[in-house]
Amino acid sequence: MIGFNVVPIFPVPVFISTDEFPLDEDELDFINHLDLRVNEHGNLMSKDGYVLKNAELSRLRNFLEDNLEQYVRKVLLVKKEIKFHITQSWVNESSKGMRHRNHSHSNSVISGVFYIAGDKCPIVFDNNRTPRLGAFDVAFEYDEYNIFNSQTWWLENEKNKLILFPSSLPHSVGENESDTKRISLSFNTFVSGTLGNGPDRTELIL
Questions:
Q1: What pLDDT shows up at residue 199?
Q2: Which helix (H) or strand (E) holds 25?
Q3: Is the distance from CB of 72 to CB of 110 less than 8 angstroms?
Q4: 152-176 tens-digit pLDDT
């Protein structure tokens, strides 16, 4: 038997809240009465692109901000001088036959998805790094798939839980095959503070 270790160099940290945040009747009523439009993905999106600024969702915003703080301080270990802020936020609704095509989020550092309602349908993340193994595009067959050889990886959506991930990470959601509407709230973030440093000529004050 040959002994070995595997070092997961440069992993992509995807955060899943362990705590649930059940919405109350007033919050659900507010979400269910938002005006919607069809977006470029072919599913429905709230016309309001800043839904978390509404007082009706202040409790939810606090929950999301608390988890975002855990992610950037406990996982990414970003210094406290750098502040993370939720920028745009919107509600998604997918009826039967609707899906989210593969995309990433521009002008954002970390993005989040909070699941509100609907049958389970996983979010699918794509590997946007070197394809397959090594520097060569070689199509191997595998005995089984794992985080080291997969080009996609999916995470099941769980009602009342939050997923946070780098905004540049491509992701999609498959077709809703259920008669139950799938509802989620998505948001983007950006930072303020001093990034980099003067001597290295990387300083950026935001």
A1: 93
A2: helix 25-32
A3: yes
A4: 899 988 999 999 999 999 999 988 8
Residue 142: its pLDDT value, please?
87
Start-to-end CA span in the chain (Å)? 54
Other CB atoms within a 10 A radius of the CB of residue 79 amount to 9
Q: What local confidence, expressed as pLDDT, does residue 131 receive?
A: 52
Q: In 3-state terms, the chain is what percent helix, strand and coil (to 5)?
A: 15, 30, 55
The closest of 153, 204, 177 to 12, measured between CA atoms, is 153
Q: Phi and psi of 147, rounded to 5°?
A: -70, -15
CA distance 106 to 101: 15
Structure tokens at 68: 């975002």
CA distance 81 to 70: 15
Q: Side chain identity at 38, as an amino acid letter?
A: V
Cα–Cα dist 92/107, whole Å: 19
DSSP, collapsed to helix, strand or coil, labels residue 180 as coil
Q: Which residues of the chain fall short of a pLDDT of 50?
A: 135
Tell me which amino acid residue 152 is: T
pLDDT of amino acid 176: 87
SS3 85: strand
